[in-house]
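Its record is quoted verbatim for completeness.
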Amino acid sequence: MQSRNPLQRLVTEPQFIGFAGRMGAGKTSAAKYLSIKYGLQYARYSEVLQEWLACDESDKDQLQRVGWNVMGGGMQRELNVRLIARLNRTQGAAIDGLRHPIDFESLSSRLGESFHLIFLETAPEWRFERLRQRFSTYKAFQLAELQPVEAFIEDLKPWSSTVILNEGPLEHLYSALEAWMTAASAGEQK
């Protein structure tokens, strides 16, 4: 009997993996790693906002304001419709930046069992260090964390397939992602 490659399921059944976590938790690093390593599409909520509402993705403060206008204005489902419409359903995707339970609900209802959420947990001190170029002081970082668009991120944790503690070098994050991918492809993850 021929042994089956544990990651073969990823080839035969496209998987859609969403990433949630606070600012600086490593969502982009994780999504880009899986995208490159497994040939997944890379999708990012802020790119959809940029295209839809013509905002500057490099201006994170503007993105927070626009993101809250969408979320607070009852347009979060429309944001998800636009993100999902961009996905090639035959390829699978790494989706960066879920911020609201509506994001999880939209993706899981449209993508079914092929959608998984990974929550990245990182202490504020680690996240501030990663974002030092953006925030000159810890107080500025804390103020950004208090913006309304950031308020629902923790609500996603209970729906995640796994929570990864990301408080080390990128190699540790990549190793944790590989362990999860192996378990998920063997059917051991929810």
In short: Residues 14-185 form a domain with the Rossmann fold fold (CATH 3.40.50.300). The first helix runs from residue 8 to 12. The CA atoms of residues 87 and 148 lie 28 Å apart.
